[in-house]
């Protein structure tokens, strides 16, 4: 057996990553790489555990599909390192996610940061990369923040630590400070134990796929080197960085929001601090501020909001995700106002102000048909993209549009921010309520949300089944039956061997029947199991 050479923590982390990627891509991992990976914390995370967690999707796979057919892009099979498509990548659509202190270990975070700094350095003309780092408070975030900062500094990057941040506040600081790189360590809401690291460029946008691929290649090959002792980066704290972000948000409010009574319910941390501060300073009467547990998803907050809005006779309620990118509402009647309805209200507000570029909004294939019908009635064009903010943002930039949205409440307003910003969205929606003198319920009624039924069907080969003649014929037949007031969307899951069926129709019973019929066609296709599971 070959004697193992002396290896560094970065090389061990790179070996672990190589195993994860090889297992996901069905490639053989050399014995030497496996032995190096097992040197770190032996018995805690053996190759079998890495494989199991990768198969469970705890490393975020990108939900990448063609907007019109739902089929994923073709992949280019090759051994690492290589220029890869999104399938099987470590990066998802908004960062790298894994179980804290397991897949997402400090060693991996440090190596990842070093590789990113090295790739950015090679792409810039500056002598020294400057990085801004933000973190969502908590044990996992604080642990990985230390690792990320160490990795950046060891690669020769100067680091500005912003402390407790949201993704929009971090991105704002990157752009305003003229930094080359932004790194955010966040804890996805409702996903116990999970942590995510996101990277942003000097322009404030998430890094392009090509640069992410370069980082993955450098990480897997351990091809990045630490800076010389005299060139190690400096680290300083910018704890007042959020002040500029709050001031920026307040410039979006054309008039005080006096008299608006609101209930706020969101996770503890930077988002509730920023939200309660900026809403009060904008003139909002916060009737209550409720702090959610990190393991609670938005549905828990929405149930609490419905009760609190009624009990306190508030005009509306707001809930945010822990990253500060999304928002959902409850109107004064206790009814939920989702991202599609928010998009509709803001589209008409921008149109009235002459600021809806090209009279167009951008949304994903998962948006409710009711949004399309409402916008059509008001002369607004709807452009659809694949699922994921990256795709929405790409379309916004390509078409120079001014509004993009998604059903779960991620609204993008390029004139104000380079990422979706839940606080900005809430301020603009509340401004619309105040300026029109109409309730949120009345404003949201511009869109009638059609019943939507979702079914997940487990299969052996999701791509083959989605493209099969039987399934395509069934989809075409169902679409003809539903006409202009219904539609079908069939798409493969990004992370699992599932085909996702979505049917919308004027009546819920019609949608349910059509979804079940399509699921049966998919389930009876060659090599697909017969069992059917409700969508989650």
Number of separate strands: 17
The CATH architecture name of the largest domain reads 3-Layer(aba) Sandwich
Q: What helical percentage do the residues reach? A: 40-55%
Give me the secondary-structure category: alpha/beta
Average pLDDT taken over every residue? 83
Q: Which stretches of 5+ consecutive residues score pLDDT under 50?
A: 40-87, 528-534
**How is the largest sheet built, in terms of strand order?**
1-5-4-2-3-6
Largest β-sheet summary = 6 strands, mixed
How large is the radius of gyration? 24 Å
What is the CATH third-level topology name of the largest domain? Alpha-D-Glucose-1,6-Bisphosphate, Chain A, domain 3
Number of helices: 18
CATH class descriptor name of the largest domain? Alpha Beta
From the spread of the alpha carbons, the general shape counts as: globular
Total domains, how many? 3
Q: Quote the distance from N terminus to C terminus.
A: 48 Å
Note the beta-strand portion: 15-25%
CATH superfamily of the largest domain: Alpha-D-Glucose-1,6-Bisphosphate, subunit A, domain 3
Descriptive notes:
The protein has 18 helices and 17 strands. It folds into three domains: 9-241, Alpha-D-Glucose-1,6-Bisphosphate, subunit A, domain 3 (Alpha-D-Glucose-1,6-Bisphosphate, Chain A, domain 3), CATH 3.40.120; 252-444, 3-Layer(aba) Sandwich (Alpha-D-Glucose-1,6-Bisphosphate, Chain A, domain 3), CATH 3.40.120; 452-534, TATA-Binding Protein. It has a six-stranded mixed β-sheet, with helices on both faces. The relative contact order is 0.09. The chain is globular, with a radius of gyration of 24 Å. Strand 15 and strand 16 form a beta hairpin. Helix 1 (9-25) crosses helix 4 (106-123). Helices cover 40% and strands 17% of the residues. The protein has helices at 9-25, 31-37, 47-55, 106-123, 139-154, 167-177, 209-221, 241-250, 270-281, 298-311, 339-352, 369-377, 389-399, 422-436, 440-444, 462-466, 469-482, 508-523; strands at residues 96-99, 130-135, 158-164, 181-186, 194-201, 235-237, 261-267, 285-292, 316-320, 327-331, 336-337, 360-364, 381-385, 452-458, 487-492, 498-504, 533-534. It is α/β, with parallel strands linked by helices.
